[in-house]
Amino acid sequence: xxxxxxxxxxxxxxxxxxxxxxxxxxxxxxxxxxxxxxxxxxxxxxxxxxxxxxxxxxxxxxxxxxxxxxxxxxxxxxxxxxxxxxxxxxxxxxxxxxxxxxxxxxxxxxxxxxxxxxxxxxxxxxxxxxxxxxxxxxxxxxxxxxxxxxxxxxxxxxxxxxxxxxxxxxxxxxxxxxxxxxxxxxxx
Length: 188
Description:
By secondary structure, the chain is mostly beta strands. The protein has a 6-stranded antiparallel sheet with strand order 1-6-2-3-4-5, with no helix packed on it. It folds into 3 domains: about 1-60, SH3 type barrels (Roll); about 65-125, CATH 2.40.50.140; about 130-185, CATH 2.40.50.140. The chain has no helices and 16 strands. A hairpin with a 7-residue loop joins strand 3 and strand 4 (about 35-45).
């Protein structure tokens, strides 16, 4: 058993007969009344995100997890296939349990959280950023840079990301996976 002081991003807990992963949390200490923790929980079975508030000191049942490195192989519709980098066993996961499947390219190394009780994979954590190549974007209009102007661009995985006007097709960019936003252009 853990308490609200143990809450952190990525912690897996049992709540309402399901297993949830904490996506965001905020400790709040109002001027009047007791302190509480506001959380955003993502179900690892359905992928649904809910908001919940725990009062300070509330006991929560945490799930013991192990992390393993897996390599993303391919997907066929809703199923995504991964291979363990240590013993080469393969697993298949539903698209709902993945955080950003649109930013995963074949060969990407990800961290899979596995429940130690039943050895079931719970969720997939992407690296903090990925490097992808731009496959399509409109050319930037010269002189249209009065503000932080951006334009949509499609990357090699099919995801669409807003990028600055100076980015062209064929450029490689770093994308922050948590928000799915452009970070920087990679120079070769």
